[in-house]
Amino acid sequence: MTPEQQEYFIQQITAQQPMLHGYIRSLLPDADKASDVLQETNLVLWRRADEFNIGENFGGWARKVAYYQVLAFYRNHQREKLLFDADLVTALAEQSERQFSREKEWKAALKHCLQKLPEHQRRLVQQRYLPGSSVQRIADETGRPVGSLSQSLYRIRETLRNCIHSQLRPDSGEITL
Question: Going along 42-159, which residue ranges are E strands?
Fold first, then answer.
């Protein structure tokens, strides 16, 4: 692995840690055990780093490795009570994969729908979702009443929700903004 590939791999594995932990946690009911499986997953990912090609879906590959690590955990701890069975883990993993694949579609629909908003509404949404922002802060900055601003944001989110639903296939699932 070249130094550039190694750097890219480290960036990807670091960026994917919250997603991987959440994914594993969705398949394992015990948080401590999920953390242990995450560490095992990281070791396997590192050992198999040369199998990953830049440009491929790192998150999907990492989730697949995590899935097999969860199955290995269940196989090694079969005698413990209150663990999911392999069929349930497989069903949960398949559901998670469907959700991950929909995320890209949802983001594209949101981007499209945001572009359709009038400029002042788009600016208001962008202001609201800046890190550290709040309705109160925007109200103070703009001189608008908090209630009025909240109502405007509610209406904009409804517009976006309806637009996104119209953009997505019927089987894409419910979206809540």
Answer: none
